[in-house]
């Protein structure tokens, strides 16, 4: 299995919806097409299988990642690995928490450790490049979820700004 940096990037959003309402959206097949502003397509590969769920995410930039879900807890969240088909994978955790009439959804990404660079270079890259880019990415994805939940209308491409890694190159 991949080695991960001991660091992660986490963002959380407050929603005016119950955990089951949020769960219904984030656990549905092809869900990223509803609220992910950098998603071109979110194709289901395996969804009704009790041994795990898999899907394919194509970003606006043309980059294609595969998501392999390995933990699934209804109304609470899931854990998955994401990356290119044969490449290294990053670990991602989606978690819903309830506090009275308010719910929170957090997404935490644990990037994989690149074998191309020494450990010190990995850490420098994480803090100077990866972490700021992933924070911006998560901010847009979570903002998209709030938009969709509040308006019942899918987000538009790059609705909250472009992203160097995931938006169309123009």
Summarize this structure as a short list of keywords or feature phrases.
170 residues, alpha+beta, 7 strands
- Pairing-aware structural class of the strands and helices? alpha+beta
Mean pLDDT, to the nearest integer, reads: 93
Shape: globular
Low-confidence sequence ranges:
none
Radius of gyration: 16 Å
Strand order across the largest sheet:
1-7-6-5-4-3-2
Count helical runs.
3
Distance between the termini: 36 Å
Strand portion, in percent? 25-35%
Helix content: 25-40%
What about the largest sheet?
A: 7 strands, antiparallel
The overall strand count is 7
Question: How would you describe this structure to a colleague?
Answer:
Helix content is 26%, strand content 35%. With 170 residues, the protein is α+β, with helices and mostly antiparallel strands. It has a 7-stranded antiparallel β-sheet with strand order 1-7-6-5-4-3-2. The mean pLDDT is 93.
Any chance you could write out the topology, listing elements then pairs?
Blueprint: E1 9-15, H1 19-26, H2 32-35, E2 39-46, E3 53-59, E4 64-73, E5 77-83, E6 89-99, E7 102-110, H3 119-151
Antiparallel strand pairs: 1-7, 2-3, 3-4, 4-5, 5-6, 6-7
How would you briefly describe this protein structure?
By secondary structure, the protein is an alpha+beta fold.
